[in-house]
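Complex 97.
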Amino acid sequence: MKKLFLSIFASTSLLMFSPFAQAEKNIELYEHGEEAHQTHCVKCHTSSVYTRETRFVKSMEALSKQVRRCKDNLGVAWFDEDTEAVAHFLNEKYYKF
Ligand code: HEC
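Predicted structure with heme C bound:
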C-alpha cells in the first residue's frame, strides 16, 4: 500500500514537472492574458503599438514594467498573476523576446 502511494506520488510529481504540464500552463497563461488584454487594454491604443517600428519596449523586463504602468493608469485591480499573464501573451504574440 505504502509502495503504491509512493509510486502514485512519484508519477504525479513527475507529471507536474513534465514539459507537457509546462506547455499546458503556458496555454492557460496565454488565454487568460489574451482575454484580460481584450477587455482592458485596447481602450487607449490598439495592438499596433506592439508592432510599430518605433516601439520602445526592448526586453521582457521592460515589457512587464510597461504592462504594469499601463495597468496602473487604468486603475483595474489586477493580481500579479493577471499582469504576468498579459505580459506573457504580448510576448508570445508580438514581441517574442
Ligand atoms: C490610459 C490609456 C492606456 C491604457 C488603458 C493602456 N495603455 Fe498601454 N500605452 C498607453 C500610452 C500612452 C502608451 C505609449 C504610446 C506611445 O508612446 O505612443 C502605451 C504603450 C504601451 C506599450 C508599449 C508599446 C511599445 O512601444 O513597445 C505596451 C506594451 C502597453 N502600452 C501595454 C498595455 C497594456 C497591457 C494595457 C492593459 C493593461 C494597456 N497598455 C492599456 C496608454 C494606455
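The mean pLDDT is 89.
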